[in-house]
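Pipeline run #58 for the internal structure catalog. This entry was flagged by the ingest filter as a single-chain record with no existing model, so it goes straight to prediction. Upstream metadata was stripped on purpose; only the residue string is passed forward. Reviewer on rotation: M.T. Logging verbosity set to normal.
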Amino acid sequence: MRQCWTIPTLPLAVYREVVAHLRQVDGVAAGLLPQTAPHFDPKLSQVGGLWLEIPEDCDRHHRDRLDAILQYYGDRAQQPWQPLDAQP
C-alpha cells in the first residue's frame, strides 16, 4: 500500500532524514516526491512530499513505529502531515 504525505514548508534535508528513518522499518520503502508548484516560492520545500510503501502484512508494531516517526517530525515542524493522493 502506497501512501504520500507532505508538510509544504519542511526543508529538503529534513525530508531526507524522515525518509532515512522510515526506511529503517522492516519491509517499508520510502522516497521523495518532486515539487509540483508552478512558481518558485522560497517558503515552500524543494520537494513535494514523501511516499512510503507499507507491506500488506505489516504488523501493528511496525505501523506504530511509522506513525511515531511521522509524528516526531510533524511535532518538530509544528505542522501536521497532510495526505496526498498516491503517486505512481
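catalog note: The chain has a mean pLDDT of 92.
catalog note: Strands lie at 2-6, 29-34, 47-53, 82-84.
status: ready for reviewer M.T.
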